[in-house]
Amino acid sequence: MARIAIGDVQGCGEELRALVKRTGFSPDRDQLWFVGDLVNRGPRSLDVLRYVRSLGDAAVVVLGNHDLHLLAVAYGSHRKLRDDDTLDAVLQAADRGPLLDWLLHRPLAWQERGAAQGELMVHAGLVPQWRAADVLRLAREVERELQRDPEGVFAAMSGNRPDRWDDALEGADRRRVVINVLTRMRFCQPDGTIDLKLKGRPGSQRAPWQPWFDVASRASRDLRVVCGHWSTLGLLARADVLALDTGCVWGGGLTAVSLEDGRRWQEPCRKHQAPGGD
């Protein structure tokens, strides 16, 4: 079985299908790993959701910040669509219900069952204090609440505070930090403080901020974290991190990488939106 990881699709449906064809993927034999942000900004979010859902167990998907934004709008929180959102077709679709329910049941973090080490997939990043077991435990906490009370979770999800992980956090504050780290973070400090407004390339930040994967004390260095979210970073492939957001929706490319042998494929993308926003 080939496992192929794919970067942020963000509604670029034509590019996704062309990229998957390039890889030689077969759904009865192989598995696609999606790092989140299936939807939004690109023109075909509805097609992307239908296609990826149709793959069944051949597609492993973690939630990204744009996926959560769609769910927050759909499940009746106070969140509204933004001017640059391209989610109307999903919200108005006849099969909206099963599509959104499927998306709601995607994990925030993924590691193959029984894997003592190896790849761990999240959308954005990890704070230095978290080991793989911590990430999965905290992700499951939030996922259970999302499926039990989505309206309640989404109503309290927005915001950048607290800005530092503490295992003593409870309730909405605890869920908000977990969601922010796993789906929005790029830079942090060694003590687990995060800044969600920093979006530039590594090196653009002032000390003591660091790319989350470069913190020397990171407890998850014994595995490779597969992620996306950071289009200004681009493709980064090294032993402890595989970052796959190559800015498809901004006119870059949509990238896929084999988790077995490192083969790479990229589909050029049309510029659907000008860079900006989160």
Structure, briefly:
This protein is of the alpha/beta class and 278 residues long.
Note the main attributes of this structure.
278 residues; alpha/beta; Purple Acid Phosphatase, chain A, domain 2; five-stranded mixed sheet; 8 helices; 13 strands
Our Rg estimate from Cα atoms comes to: 17 Å
User: How many individual domains?
Assistant: 1
Q: Judging by the overall fold, what is the CATH architecture?
A: 4-Layer Sandwich
CATH topology group: Purple Acid Phosphatase, chain A, domain 2
CATH level 4 superfamily: Metallo-dependent phosphatases
Helix-strand sequence: EHEHEHHHEEHHHEEEEEEEE
Structure report:
By secondary structure, the protein is an alpha/beta fold. The protein contains 8 helices and 13 strands. Helix 6 crosses helix 8. Helix content is 29%, strand content 16%. Strand 4 (109-110) and strand 5 form a beta hairpin. A 5-stranded mixed β-sheet has the order 3-2-1-12-13, with helices on one face. Strands 4-5-9-11-10 form a 5-stranded mixed β-sheet, with helices on one face. It has a 3-stranded antiparallel β-sheet with strand order 7-6-8, with no helix packed on it. The protein has a single domain (3-107, 119-268), classed as Metallo-dependent phosphatases (Purple Acid Phosphatase, chain A, domain 2, 4-Layer Sandwich).
Map the helices and strands.
Layout: E1 3-6, H1 13-23, E2 31-34, H2 45-54, E3 59-61, H3 65-74, H4 88-91, H5 96-104, E4 109-110, E5 119-122, H6 132-148, H7 150-155, H8 171-183, E6 187-188, E7 194-195, E8 210-211, E9 224-227, E10 236-238, E11 241-243, E12 253-258, E13 264-268
Parallel strand pairs: 1-2, 2-3, 5-9, 9-11
Antiparallel strand pairs: 1-12, 4-5, 6-7, 6-8, 10-11, 12-13
Helix pairs in contact: 6-8
